[in-house]
Each structure stands twice: as C-alpha cells, then as structure tokens.
Amino acid sequence: MKKILSVILLASIFLFRTAFADRVAIIGGGASGLVTAWLLEQNHDVTLYEAQGRLGGHANSIEVNVDGSPVVIEAGAEFFNETFYPHFLKLLRHFNIPLKTFTLVSTFYTTNGDDVIILPPYHNSSVEWKSLTPSNLCRSVQLKIVIDNSRKFLESHDTNPTLQEFADSLTVSKGFKTSVLYPLLAAAWGVSPDDIQDASAYNTLKYIVEGNDVSGYQWYEVTGGLKKYIEAVRASLQKTEVKLNARVKLISNNNGHYTILAEDDSVKEYDHIVFATDANVASYLLSTMSETADLSVLLGKIKYYDTKIAIHGDTRFMPPNRDDWRIVNVRYDGTHSATTMYKQWKSKTPIFKTWLTYDVRPPKDTGSALPSNLYALINYKHPTTDRNYFEVQKVIERLQGNNNLWFAGMWTYDNDSHESAIISAIKIAERLAPNSERLKILHSS
C-alpha cells in the first residue's frame, strides 16, 4: 500500500510540475537557441522557431563533391581551442563528438609577390625560415609588443577603446600598423583595414592573444563538421517542439503573456520569450509591441555588415608559391585584405574557403573576381563589434528576464565567438532552470 501511495505521490508531483511548467518560445535555432532549448526542456514547455530549413545558424557544414568523393567543409564557424572554449568543448565531449587537432599556422603576403611572413615562425619543431629575415624579425618583435600589452589590457575587460586608440598607445611603428597589423586583423572579419581600426580593441585583440597563447598552437575542428554536434543536440531533444521554416512575423503582449504569430500561420501563447536571433531581428520583433519600443531602439544600435564566403578550388586566392600555403592565408593588395582557409587533409585536390567582401587579387590577375571551380557561395551578416556592440551588451545583461524577455547569442556575451553563444544559453538556464541536470554537465569541471 505504501509503495502504491508513493507512486501516486510521485506521479502527482510530476503532473503538477508538468502542468505548471512555463511555456517558453525560443526564436532562432542557431547554437545559442538550440542549446537553450536543450537546457530548458526538462523543466519547461519549449517551442523553438527557426526561420530557415535547418538548425545551426553560423555552424554551417556543407558537403561538396571533390574527386568523386564527399568532403565536408565549414562554410561558417570553423575551429576552437582547449583554453578559450571550455563550455563548448564540454558540450561536444558530452555527445562524444569526434575532434581533430591541428597546428594553426598563418601566411600573410602581398598580392604583388614582394612580401611574405609565416606565423608563428617556430612550430612543430620546425622553423619558418622566411619569417627570419631582418624585416620580418622586426615585424615579429612589434607583434610581440602588441600581444604582450594586449594580455594586460584584456584583463581589464575595457571594451571602450578602439583598436586604433590601443595601437597608437604602443611603441610600434606606423608602417607596421598600416601594412601588417590592421590588414591582418581586418581579414579575419572580412572588413577593410580602415574599418577594423574603429572596432573594439578588446574584441579584436582577444583573438590574436588566443592564437598566440594556445599551447603548441593546437586547435580543434569537428570531424565531419560542426553539423555533427548540431544533429546530436537536436536528436537529444525529447520535449521541445522544433518548427523549421517558421519565421516569426508578430509578437503581441496579452496581460503578461506573449502570443507569437509565425509565417506558417500558427499562433501560440507563451510565458517567456528567448530571442536567440541577431540583434536586428530581435529589434524588429520588439518594435511590434509599444511597451518594448525603447528596447527595440537600443538593439538597433548594433549594426551588421554583409560577408560573402566562397567554397572553391581556385589557387589564385592562395600564395603564389605553394610552399607558403598554410591553414590561414591572408593576402593584402595595399588597400584591402582577405582570408583563404586551406586544410590539406580534406582532399587530394585542394579545396578552399575564401572571404570575398573585397576583390583582393594579384595586379596581373584579370580573370573573374569569383573563384573558378566554385562549389558554394554563402552570404552572412556579422555584427560590427564597435563601442555600440558592447554598450548594448552591458544593458542587455542588466535587462535579462525583465518582463520574461531573454536574449541569447554571441552578441549578448563577451566577444563574438561560438563559446560566447554557448555561455549565453547557460546564463539563461541558470535563471530559468537552475537545477537542470543538463546544466550541470556544462558546469562540471
């Protein structure tokens, strides 16, 4: 009898908790939205709205045919490391996602063929002799000055100074800044060397310090592409309703509850809304409610720019000397710079990933600005990480949860990385599902 009563009691508790679980809408099925759903669904009634026909956002692994065989290429987010992506790695290891390590080495060269430096100059017990010329040694010394001062600066977490303001405070030459530092960093974001100077020093310098400080310059990629972890998280969702091709058209507030109208004409009411979109989409949706008009204006301060990425097999976008090919290859024509990624282990026939925001090619190259052997062309929007970006971030941190509105995504926490996206999901779960067993997985040491 006691056993029966215990079962009834436990069942009653479960039904009570289920009946009174909050209804949570998550708008956006990128990394932050998907992981937020995974962390919350055991405690809440969760619906995930994704405008596209796939989940993952910038975690966008595509499959192309090379030499008659399928090859998976990252068309968006790409790699990460042990030191600066701890929560993301906990998630991957929980799902037993296979990882490949590699040494991250970069080539910076001018398109006229006059100049090349390979960084770091010493790795894997080998020396990059081209980096030991007198001029390149001078550059390496100045780059070390930037990195050493950046470490101290990053500890302060001061997001106000621009990259130019920080660089001007250092004892490095103007020539080094204009011909190496700015174009090198600009290529990482697909912007111009002029624009990168207005970016937050904190955001840009964090990446260059990470690249230098990772033990042995060892980074990871997911074997089979980041889509593997996206698929694993999606497959583990037990209660979340996932709605693809379901762009949210309108949100209304009805006596403290929110009603969402989606493009599929579905209408549903929720207690909480998590905006796991970019800031501009969140701004637009909030503008449809009079009580959130000011919040909409705030988010609108974050600006986005278009980037174009090509997956291709055209060697014109690589250093002219094949011996100089490395994983990251930055070309500079004296005005603009751009990056081409190359991983030689992917296929016998080379396949590349190139940023095409600007036409950066050798002066004698009169061919098409688009690569030949083009497998895919992808367009993204990326936030401008200037003062406004971090000012909005600080305000959003204070407003999280007000009126049951929440914000997730890399733009809501620290620098613009995949780790930031995962942490943003964790922070929401700490408030809405503090006893979540899944949350403990990402908190574990």
Task: Please describe what this structure looks like.
With 445 residues, this protein is α/β, with parallel strands linked by helices. It has 14 helices and 21 strands. It has helices at 2-19, 31-40, 86-94, 134-156, 163-168, 174-189, 193-197, 201-213, 227-236, 279-286, 293-299, 387-399, 418-432, 437-443, and strands at 23-27, 45-49, 61-66, 69-74, 99-103, 106-110, 116-119, 122-123, 126-127, 218-222, 241-243, 248-254, 257-262, 267-270, 272-275, 304-312, 328-332, 337-342, 352-355, 374-383, 405-407. The strands form six sheets. A seven-stranded mixed beta sheet has the order 7-6-17-18-19-16-20, covered by helices on one side. The radius of gyration is 24 Å and the shape is globular. 41% of the residues are buried. Mean pLDDT is 94; it is low at 1-20.
List the helices and strands and how they pair.
Blueprint: H1 2-19, E1 23-27, H2 31-40, E2 45-49, E3 61-66, E4 69-74, H3 86-94, E5 99-103, E6 106-110, E7 116-119, E8 122-123, E9 126-127, H4 134-156, H5 163-168, H6 174-189, H7 193-197, H8 201-213, E10 218-222, H9 227-236, E11 241-243, E12 248-254, E13 257-262, E14 267-270, E15 272-275, H10 279-286, H11 293-299, E16 304-312, E17 328-332, E18 337-342, E19 352-355, E20 374-383, H12 387-399, E21 405-407, H13 418-432, H14 437-443
Parallel strand pairs: 1-2, 1-15, 2-11, 6-17, 15-21
Antiparallel strand pairs: 3-4, 5-10, 6-7, 8-9, 12-13, 13-14, 16-19, 16-20, 17-18, 18-19
Helix pairs in contact: 2-9, 2-13, 4-8, 10-11
